[in-house]
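Long-time lurker, finally posting.

We've been working with Calcineurin-like phosphoesterase domain-containing protein (Ophiocordyceps australis) and I want a structural starting point before designing mutants. I don't trust myself to interpret raw outputs, so I'm hoping someone here can both generate the structure tokens and explain anything notable. Sequence follows.
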Amino acid sequence: MTNHTRPLFLALLCTHTVGFSAKATDEATDEATRRGQPDEANPTSFPHLVQPRPAIAQPSPSHSCVAASRLAHAVGYMSVAAFFRQGLRLAVPLAIACTIYLYLYPFIGGCAFPVPSRDPVEAFAATRRLHWPYKEGQHEPAPTLAPFRLLALGDPQLEGDTSIPTAYLGVLPHLRSLAKRVTFQAEHPSLRDRLRVILHDIIDVIFEDVPNLFESARKRFDLFGNDFYLAHIYHSLYWWTRPTHVSVLGDLLGSQWIEDHEFDKRGHRFWNRSFRGGERVPDQVAMFPVKDFNISGNLDSQLADKVWSRRILNVAGNHDVGYAGDLTPERMQRFERVFGKANYELRFALSANYTSRNTSLTEGASPTTRLDPQLRIIVLNDMNLDTPAKDAGLQDATYRFINSAIDTAAPVGHEGHFTLILTHIPLHKPAGVCVDWPYFDFHPPEEGGGVREQYLLSYDASKGILEGVYGINANPQAAGKGLGRSGLILNGHDHEGCDTFHFVNQTNGTDASLRSWEAVRWQDALERKLPGMSLLPGRREITVRSMMGDFGGNAGLLSLWFNETSWQWEHEYVDCPLGSQHFWWFTHFVDLGTLAAALVYAAVLVLEARGVDVDGKYFGFVAQVRAAVEEARQRRRRTAEMKDEGQDKNET
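Top reply, 14 upvotes:
Generated this for you. Predicted structure of Calcineurin-like phosphoesterase domain-containing protein:
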């Protein structure tokens, strides 16, 4: 014990004595003075001690606490109330700042659905006016919002029991094995073998079972928080941006290999926790493409129809149903039962009050090529477009759906329709354009040889979508000059995200059949002015960055609006990331810690107001703990010295 702390212990240990004499107090004071510490009888040495102690101390425990707490102040210790007060001065502003950012991050980050002007400042202003409580009395024009605003979310990948060791190994499995062997419930060829296995089980209990208990508890807590992290992204953006539609672009769950009961558990978490308030698209609404189709709804820039904003357009991903070599009817049925159909189309008409199309149809271009503005959404399961497939029947059903979508599409060259494809695996592109590259892996022949893993669709499958669904042709003499139908492709799978432009150069070579598809980054395409260039038809593909915490909690905001001048749909897309899940955890830990500290501080103030010497009791407890620690240290030192003396004697 140092000379500096000895007076503190002498004073604090007196809190456990019923009374003490003035002589003992004077000795402690003299000792403090001799060590260079202030004399409590002389308050001028510490101006903040405004009340001098009585000359004669009464034998009272409260006086001992006063002496302890005052001496604690004298040697530099902060009182309990002051400690919490100073801590809250730091914690409260930090908690407020983190909470404000976390719960208002779309506002602080300037997130907003793009508007027809493509000006992000105007888009943010239009979104902000939606939340201004006095907008009814404003003289400003109503917000100009796009009639179709899609909140696109990629790859949430809800994990579950397969990531929790105790869920698939059991609780302390080696301990149960050890008990069977010790009680001779398990047979062994010899006692030596029994002892060997028992020793192994003991080691496994210590180094596997016990760590697995802690890891399982941590993982359960992590999954619980991750569900609410994803929910925070969905609800915050839904509240702030006011989307008309929402889509999750595949990999809703984390594994296609899970059993049905685990699939249902994760599905329940999806609908009741991460995407609470969302609705499954009804089967009778999710239509198979037919000539005599029904309109699924009307698009309006106003916020009247909220039915489709609650419905979530779920896309089947590889972790939901498996790749072509893993996809079975049973996996497809359970996905469609919980999340909705895997293949369907929706058609939305533009409200009559949004355009003056009756006038437009009679002016400008021939009315025979101008159709009523309509948005066609195709939700496509592209998991089994490539071969070999495990189930040929499911693959045939997917191709029948695509062929029907092609047959029921508007003729190439007609204007006014727009096709938005929502799928999971991105189109083929050369290595280096995006993070993922063309990669295929197959099951061995004895297991069917089907596709086990793929990063991108094959070139032929991608070409089939671009030339079939969109009607783009490498021959400029084809219908509509080969420019095809207007549209956009939205997908997931590549967690890093990507934005590309697929095009075919109609001037390459002399034979159209030899002209191949190319892909470049969208930003590079804009700099080279490729979109809209003559004899260079193409379509944009947006791979939405994952909403998982490791990828910044991203969300995509896609706007579509109709240009009456060109009689074409136009679109724009922006990202809105929250940030790592660690910030979500940090903010809530800071909030809970600050709240707990505030409650303790309030309790301390109440106790002190009732005459309880909190400082004396606390420092007395600290002194007890330190004395116990010091005693244990001294005991270990004496034991070590005795051992050293014994060794010296033996050597002598």
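Before you design anything, note these points.
Residues 642 and 648 are 10 Å apart (CA to CA).
The longest helix spans residues 191-241.
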